Amino acid sequence: MAPGQYRNDYALSHDIDYFFRIDDLAIHVASNGSLIPAFINRDINYAIQSAVYEMNEHSDIEPMLLRYTQKLELFYITRDGLEEYVSSFSSMARKGFISIDNIGAFFNPESYLFLTVAWPSIKNTKLEQTGIISLLPDISESNDTRIISYKNQILQSIHKADILSYSVG
Question: Where in 82-130 does DSSP place strands (E)?
Fold first, then answer.
């Protein structure tokens, strides 16, 4: 394990919020007790978490409450629990992040299967103004095949959520 990475035993027993970007897209992922990608530095992620948790919510959001109701019921999330489930993702979206859950952990904690739950209706400029965006690891240009695969899975989840029209202006 490289210095600054999350220990596997810790990652597998915690639902860790981690943050990064792909070009101009600010991404939040809830790990759901799965392994954390190696490009996430624990200490930097902790600093980002602290800053993000203190942020005010600014953006309008596009939550996928109704659309995912049937899919989430497959994971034993009832209609009553759905609003509670979506609330933390909606909060991250109101702070300017595309908010994603790693639902692969339901099946295998070492896999990645992503569900885009909520996203801001417009780009939140507060991320730039607070400097948080500069802290986020940018995986856009990586040549590492594992990171490319991870990035493609994230982008596929975003595209499946039909947010191709996500405004970055």
Answer: 98-102, 114-118
Walk across the sheet containing 98-102 and list its strands.
17-22, 25-30, 98-102, 114-118
Sequence letter at residue 52: V
Q: In sequence order, what are the residues at sequence separation of 6 or more whose Cβ sits closer than 8 angstroms to the Cβ of residue 153?
A: 112, 113, 114
Cut 0.70: pTM above it: yes
CB-count exposure of residue 38 (10 Å: 0-12, 13-18, 19+): middle
Summary count for the chain: helices (H), strands (E): 7, 4
Mean pLDDT per block of 10 residues along the chain (169 residues) reads 86 94 92 92 95 81 48 54 76 88 79 83 67 90 92 87 44
